[in-house]
Design brief:
Reverse transcriptase Ty1/copia-type domain-containing protein; alpha+beta; about 120 residues; 3 helices; extended
């Protein structure tokens, strides 16, 4: 890599080198995710769901595309290395489909560490 010069993009990371520090950002990766999953045109909300209400299956709604869901979660899992603020939410959605109380699709779990500290 040294023969190619200073890296600017590497594995989805934007790397900017200054004399005294190195800045690493995933802004471009996140923007690409928003475009890929068509979230650019979505309306934002401070709290998208009621936090004290259990999620129930909507019998009239179309089923969830499992492959699309797994692709979204997998893409977000790559972000949690640099974004510990979203780590809990992403891990909760990856383990049991956002706590769907009737037909949990997955019951796997795990420990998430940041350095030597347990996050979730």
């Amino acid at each position: 890599m040294s023969s190619m010069g200073e890296p600017t993009f590497f594995l989805g990371l934007h790397v900017m080198q200054r004399d005294d520090r190195i800045f690493i950002s995933q802004d471009k990766y996140m923007a690409d995710l928003l475009k890929k999953f068509d979230f650019v045109t979505m309306k934002t909300a401070s709290t998208p769901i009621e936090t004290d209400k259990a999620l129930l299956k909507d019998e009239e709604a179309a089923g969830v595309d499992v492959h699309l869901y797994k692709s979204m979660i997998g893409s977000l899992m790559y972000l949690i290395a640099s974004r510990p603020d979203i780590m809990f939410a992403v891990c909760a959605c990856s383990s049991d489909y956002a706590r769907a109380s009737i037909d949990r699709k997955s019951t796997t779990g795990g420990c998430q560490l940041l350095g030597k500290r347990l996050i979730s």
